Each structure stands twice: as C-alpha cells, then as structure tokens.
C-alpha cells in the first residue's frame, strides 16, 4: 500500500461526549463492527446465559487533512486450540517452593488510571508494518512466572471478591508481559478492572453484560452477570482467567499500536469482509496471547494437563458459530475451530511471533 496519510482525513472527535458519538462498548464473545453493518448477532441466550452482544460502531470520517487521531477511534474488544502439548503444564500436584520464577524481582506498579497515550502510526503503510513486523513479535514470554491470584468460584463470588481476583490477575499479567513489552521498546500499562452489573457507561459508551477493554481510557471492565454465566458457557475453573487474559491481550495490542492499526486498515478498505477479517485477526491474536499467559503462570497456579480440555472449551464456546448457532457464520471474532487453534498456539509456545495472526493464511482466521 502506498505511503499515504490516513486517507487524507482524520477520524477526529467533533466535540461532545464519547456517549454522544455512538461508540457502544462490546466485549466477551462479540464486538467490532456488528452494529455498524446493521447485523446484530444473537448472544448466548439459547445456551442459558446472558447475551454477550454489542460492539463499537465505525467512527465517521471528517473533512480535512492530517493523521488519524486516536481519540476519535475508540476500540474495544472482548474475548473471545487443534491438539498440542503445552510445556509448563504439569500432570499432577507438586511442591513449587524451589521453582525459579522469572521476573520475580520486578515490582508491578499499581493500576494506572491516567496512562500515557497509545502509539499511533502516521500512515497506512506504517500501520501495515506494525501489524506484521512489530518489534513485539521478536520477543519471548518468560516462564514460569509467579502468580498469587488463586482461582475463585466466580459464579458465587461477591463484587469485591471479583474485583480483588481480577485486579490480582492484572498484577500477574503485567509481571508476565513486562519483559517482552519493555524489550520491544514499548510501554506496558496496568489497567484497573471495574466490576459492574447489567450495564456500564464508560468513555467508550454503554455496555451490557460483557468483559471488555476500553482503548479510550485503557481500562478493563467485567460484568458480574458475565461472571455468573461463565460456568454455564464453559465448565472450566480457569475460564474467567482466560477471559481476563484475552482482554489484557487487547491492552497489549493497544500499547503496541497493533489494535488501532488493524482497525484503521479494516475501515480504510471500505469492504465489510476485509474489515471483519482484520477484526478476526485481532481477536484470535488475543486468544493466542491469553494462552501464552496461561502457560507462563501454569506452574504457580497448579494448572494441569487435565485442565486443558476445559480451557479449550472456553475458547470454543465464544466462536462466532457457537455464539450464533450458525456453522457458516462469517463474524468478527472467528469460528470455534480458529479460536481453539490460536489458543493452543499460545498455550504451547513462548515466542510471541507464534501469535502473528496478520501473516497467517485466511483459513486459519476463518
């Protein structure tokens, strides 16, 4: 693609609040682009859980020249294996007192509610380079890494218990991802996790029952009703941790410039199918990154090989075909088989280039 500016038109904010601009939040299982195409996707109601629907609409292009303004392109995302052997996952209980945990001297900072601005490529050509050849891909994830956020029954936990658990998971996530992000010359941010009920209004708009990352404030939000539904959607005690790790995957994409670059390229194409393909590449990449995190903390948390089926079932449950009941669904998150494949890639590898979904064949992100 030519080294043109962002279409010669900034996606600037014309004034008014974020809510007034019509950026509804999305997240777990569904998200990008559905409302913009006038094609809402059904949720999990047939399976007994709440509907995890909704997603951000396309920002409107405004007149004038210049670069893309991040503040005008609000990006949200949500969560969302083929067989593998995941090194680092045990076959039984063990004493971890002698484990040499990686990055253990790193002092994880508190949640940053006033984070530095996200990096924004200046041209479409630069955006293509970011998504395919980011220095982030050249790094590896340390393992094993200590995590003190032990699993809880999210289906019965109180809001305060959920907040403590997920904010503890954020500490673990930052400890795992700080080395590769820093080595890539980028800045990692620890998001806060806000627990809410049936509806939440943020700088990214209003969300129903969801878990989502909001790029406008770089924070994570998790509905307590989603927490109650997780045991229904995927009978896996690690499902909620997979979800929150997926959301942090979007935070990593945001901090590396991958998130905004992919969304801008999809929108610039002017083609719905191309836009959906970019969205699916983002979503399954977040699945892959979540798998890498699970692999890194498996020893500390006691995740066993016997837990793998449940973890894979979590990825499978949020496939576009599983959510809609349509095996031929062409959606914005990926079919169950794609989500399982990329989750497996993360669970079985430490090299981040394994998660470069933007150079993968279309068939692997279907």
Automatic annotation (TrEMBL):
Keyword flag Transcription regulation: no
Record-given protein name: Neutral zinc metallopeptidase
Compartment(s): Membrane
Biased composition (Low complexity): 33-49
GO cellular component: membrane
Family annotation (PANTHER family): INNER MEMBRANE PROTEIN, PUTATIVE MEMBRANE PROTEIN YPFJ
Keywords: Membrane, Transmembrane, Transmembrane helix
Pfam families from the UniProt entry: Zn_peptidase
Membrane topology: Single-pass membrane protein
Region of interest called Disordered, as start-end residue ranges on this chain: 1-60, 93-116
Keyword Transmembrane helix: yes
InterPro entries: Uncharacterised_pept_Zn_put (IPR007343)
Chain ranges passing through the membrane: 68-89
